[in-house]
Specification:
The complex is a heterotrimer.
Chain A (H helix, E strand, L loop, with lengths): L4 H9 L18 H15 L3 H16 L5 E3 L3 E13 L7 E11 L4 E6 H10 L13 H8 L6
Antiparallel strand pairs in A: 1-2, 2-3, 3-4
Helix pairs in contact in A: 3-4, 3-5
Chain B lengths: L5 H9 L12 H7 L3 H33 L5 H23 L1 H7 L10 H12 L4 H29 L11 H16 L9
Chain C lengths: L1 H29 L4 E6 L3 E6 L4 H7 L18 E6 L6 H4 L4 H5 L2 E3 L9 E4 L8 E12 L4 E10 L10 E5 L11 E5 L9 E7 L5 H8 L6 E8 L11 E6 L3 H13 L6 E7 L8 H10 L3 E7 L11 E2 L3 H9 L7 E5 L2 H12 L8 E3 L4
Parallel strand pairs in C: 1-5, 12-13, 12-16, 13-14, 14-15, 16-17
Antiparallel strand pairs in C: 1-2, 3-4, 3-5, 6-7, 6-11, 7-10, 8-9, 8-11
Helix pairs in contact in C: 8-9
Chain lengths: 154, 196, 369
């Protein structure tokens, strides 16, 4: 798909070493709209909205903040966050800066951990963006839904 | 064609023989830049400027250089070169005097060079054997016609921003449908004056 | 036939050449913005050749506006007021400036091009900032994720700073990070030593500069930084001081403690250092030395989740707990609090401090979160 100059400028923000060390796209060469489209289709097949996922992820960050940098036990999960100084803009280029909060969410039964950031939650909620395939930042929507235990039977 | 008043040609180029809505030339930057009235206006004026200048220059080059030397078949190359140079000049001018416009137009400014409407107008003026004045007014009129079309489109698209359009049609789909409807509306002008 | 081909090629060449010449002349005319005057704070005048961004133009006169993204228009650190000659606000600026800021003529210096005379306003402290070249004199691991970086200044050779200030360190392109960005780090060394500075740098997940420092920076390598900057510093008085820090937030406190030691301060100072477990504690010996040099200084480390192997006998729990216990026992009417660390910790502590009588004007911290 042809990119307008505006889109090309925005895409640059997603690349490695511009806003974050590894960037948001990994090895994915697709147009950002295609990446978002495919993930949204996966989610609509499961009957889940990105907002629900973002809500859950944000909840864990909020709980994690209470422990400053220590681990917080929330029953099925433990969460540990780090909040570093400085702010980061959204790569999509809209106004607003986001705090640098990094969360490690551990599922005790599944013995699996996912890592995500406050900016990542914003990207999911506002843009439906879960990261390019192959990116360290990528959270597979279908796996996230099972990991977080979101109800798909509605 | 010398019998036609240059002003009739000018008028016809805007309405009855609109380079975009009647001849469907210059579609690609039209579809991409018609999302905002401000940028559409900027690009439309840029295209008008290029069309007027290149019509004049290409007329001179064709009749004073290519024809006398018997190498009219070179017109395709030469016209493009002249268009490219004119666009470069325009770019420098816009970059100097309006940076927001440079950023908003981005790649579409140099893309005016390969806008088929520009080359089309130069070739038409040769085919229709226009005089110098007729050519210049033909160029200016075509430019204004293109400007009119892109402005109307931008106005419509800005209005449509808040409307619920079926997902499959959003973007290029609805844009082409709108263009088609506008073209049909312009067919209504055709009775006013007939130029070929 | 051949003659004809040569002839046509010559004509084409001629036409192209003529047009090219025309363009070269036009470029000379259009791209030449001539000399422009930038008037700063209505008193200082700077003459530059037009065409570059305001950020770069100011740099040529050794005026350094803070910038973390190297002029790419993503960090919004380089805000300044342009009262004349700024031109229309660019789309690249609109996304990072609030409506009030735009109404107040605040612009991003890295995006505004100098095309005509400008009048701008800069805070006076900005003029103290310089760009420094330095050499890495030492790299030491303080903990598993905090490194002490010792820099010896090369050019200029001396730096004057107030304890508590920070510098913006630039990285060099490495591996995936092809661009240069800069980040702020507080100076941890004594202000008396004008030829060296120490920085404490903690590795941030996905961090561009911290990854460079931890995995690529080598002994004797040359680095560039600008500074000193910041308003965080010791305030006068003889009221009690509460210091609170976590992680690399220890850095400015070390410099300030050194100042207090040199001044033989008689103020009562309690320094609460919050960490998760023993592996996050460092500079403990240095703190013991300060306890000897400063008569009324006490260092109180608190671990929120000590590991069993730590055999921790000191304070436990979140840092807010020992802080609150302490200030509830003292008269906080004049006390001052100095904070440095993660924004979460700072927010939590401010709540505790203000609900116990330490009002906002007596709470000091670097607000760069």
């Amino acid at each position: 798909m042809k990119q307008t100059p505006e889109e090309a400028r925005i895409r640059r923000n997603f690349e490695t070493g511009i806003l974050s060390k590894d960037g948001f796209l990994g090895s994915d060469e697709r147009h950002i709209h295609d990446i978002i489209q495919e993930d949204l289709q996966t989610l609509s097949r499961l009957g889940v909205y990105p907002d629900e996922i973002a809500q859950r992820l944000k909840h864990f960050i909020d709980e994690g903040k209470k422990g400053l940098e220590g681990k917080i036990d929330l029953g099925a999960f433990t969460v540990q966050i780090r909040w570093d100084r400085g702010m980061i803009p959204c790569p999509f280029g809209e106004p607003g800066l986001h705090p640098k909060i990094h969360a490690r969410l551990f599922h005790k039964t599944k013995q699996r951990e996912i890592r995500y950031t406050q900016l990542g939650v914003h990207l999911i909620r506002k843009h439906g963006f879960f990261g390019g395939k192959g990116s360290v930042f990528r959270l597979e929507p279908a796996e996230l839904v099972t990991f977080l235990g979101i109800d798909t039977t509605k | 064609m010398e019998s036609l008043s240059p002003w009739v040609i000018f008028f016809a180029a805007i309405f009855t023989g609109n380079i975009l809505l009647t001849y469907f030339l210059g579609m690609c930057s039209f579809l991409s830049v018609s999302k905002q009235i401000k940028t559409a206006l900027g690009l439309g004026l840029a295209v008008t400027f290029v069309l007027t200048i290149t019509s004049a220059l290409n007329y001179i080059v064709y009749h004073q250089i290519l024809e006398p030397l018997g190498i009219v078949y070179l017109r395709y190359i030469v016209f493009i070169v002249v268009i490219a140079a004119t666009v470069q000049l325009l770019e420098m001018f816009i970059e100097r005097y309006s940076e927001p416009l440079t950023i908003n137009l981005g790649i579409f400014l140099p893309l005016i060079t390969v806008n088929c409407a520009i080359l089309g107008v130069s070739l038409f003026m040769v085919i229709r054997k226009y005089t110098f004045i007729q050519s210049v007014l033909f160029g200016a009129g075509s430019g204004l016609g293109w400007l009119l079309a892109i402005l109307a489109m931008a106005g419509i698209r800005e209005r449509l921003n808040e409307q619920k359009i079926p997902p499959a049609l959003r973007g290029p789909g609805i844009a082409l449908i709108i263009t088609g409807i506008m073209a049909m509306a312009f067919v209504g002008f055709s009775g006013i004056v007939q130029i070929q | 036939m051949l003659n004809h081909i040569i002839f046509t090629v010559a004509v084409l060449g001629g036409i192209n050449g003529l047009l090219a010449l025309l363009l070269v002349i036009a470029e000379r005319f259009f791209a030449n913005y001539g000399e422009c005057t930038i008037t700063i704070n209505e008193k200082r005048e700077l003459r530059v050749s037009g065409g570059s961004s305001l950020l770069v133009a100011l740099k040529t006169d050794k005026i350094f506006l803070p910038s973390a993204c190297g002029g790419r228009g993503t960090c919004a650190y380089c805000k300044c007021r342009i009262t004349e000659g700024g031109g229309p606000v660019l789309p690249t600026e609109e996304s990072l400036l609030s409506e009030d800021e735009i109404a107040d003529n605040v612009r991003l210096a890295c995006q505004v091009k100098v095309k005509s005379d400008l009048a701008i306003r800069l805070p006076e402290e900005l003029f103290q900032i310089q760009e420094f070249k330095a050499r890495v004199a030492g790299l030491e691991d303080l903990t598993y994720d905090i490194k002490l970086v010792k820099l010896r200044l090369v050019d200029p050779t001396d730096i004057q700073f107030t304890p508590g200030q920070y510098v913006q360190l630039q990285n060099k392109p490495y591996a995936k990070a092809k661009e240069t960005v800069s980040r702020a780090y507080s100076i941890a060394s004594s202000a008396i030593d004008t030829k060296n500075i120490d920085l404490m740098i903690r590795l941030v997940p996905e961090g561009m500069v911290t990854t460079w420092v931890h995995h690529h920076l080598k002994q004797d390598e040359e680095v560039v930084f600008t500074g000193p900057m910041g308003d965080f510093r010791l305030h006068e008085g003889d009221a009690e001081i509460i210091m609170i820090a976590g992680g690399s937030g220890l850095a400015p406190m070390v410099s300030i403690l050194d100042e207090l030691a040199r001044n033989k301060s008689q103020r009562k100072i309690t320094f609460f250092f919050g960490a998760v477990s023993k592996k996050d504690l460092f500079y403990v010996d240095e703190m013991k030395q300060f306890q000897e040099k400063i008569p009324k200084f006490t260092f109180v480390p608190a671990l929120s989740q000590p590991d069993p192997e730590d055999n921790w006998k000191g304070q436990t729990g979140l840092i807010t707990i020992p802080v609150e216990n302490h200030i509830k026992k003292i008269d906080t009417a004049k006390s001052q609090a100095y904070l440095c660390g993660s924004p979460g910790m700072i927010n939590a502590c401010i709540k505790v401090l203000s609900s116990n009588g330490i009002t906002k004007e007596r709470i000091f911290y670097d607000p760069f979160a």
